[in-house]
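For consistency, the fold was encoded as tokens, which produced the following:
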Amino acid sequence: MKTTSKETLSTPVFGADASAVSPAVMRETKDRRRAFLLLTPGVLWMLLFMLLPLGMVIYVSFWTQTTFAVKPELTTASWERFLSSSTYLTAIGTTLRVWVIVLLATLIVGYPVALFIGLFVKNRTLQTALLVACVIPFWTSFLIRVIAWRPMLGTEGAINIILMKLGIISEPLSFLLFSEFSVIVGMTQIYCVFMVGPITFMIARIDESVIEAARDLGASFGTIFRRIVLPLSLPGVIVGTIFVSVMVLGEFATAASLSGRKVNLLGNIIVSQVGSLKWAFAAVAGVVLTIIITAVIALALRVVDLRKEM
């Protein structure tokens, strides 16, 4: 009898026997169809615009690249050239170094801002207004936000003029612009909001009664932050880390504009190779960049189980 019951639950019945199907089974079948319909657009989108292009990029990376053309004859020459070149290996190191520094900078700058908005601002309307204020720079073009740093960091820029008038320096600081420093400053300013948003969201979700109970038991602010706020805000930190990492690792425009092409990131290599019509070599750099981003995201997701915490 138990076997017959399981078969009835797992096998849809049509036609004259449909009236024998229980309402629970019919509801389950409808839920499955609804879930399938809801998933279909997303699955198609991922297949067409992520998996298919990614497979094509991997395939092209093994094509034969000549000076003026690329042929669909499979070879590992482009991979061997990339992995044996000190220039490109240095670019990987520079990309990782800039990513780590920008990630830490956005966390150091963004976390206190998120802590203030999420923990100390009780008014929801004011919280929303402050978060909107954080994204005001995004109302302008990305390139305008990047180029706007030039008159600030140049040898005759605002920062050098202020420091000289205050008597802090006697001559302009030349490292402020067209250097790795200017790239890090520009990226930190551009991507800091992607760290602030998720952390603010997680801190604002903390139950106020938990913090009040800790205060009633005599816990200091440091203890409350270390034992309650920081652990509960970690999922926001991980989400912000993923956002910032994906965008910084794939960057090329900020480095090209603020470094004067002195800082060569993997993104800049891809752009230059595509401009030279060297599709196979650009594909190799793209695959390497994708592997790095995937590893970073996987590492971040191992730190905190977002499905459990969110």
User: Anything to note?
Assistant: The first strand starts at residue 64 and ends at 65. The CA atoms of residues 209 and 215 lie 10 Å apart.
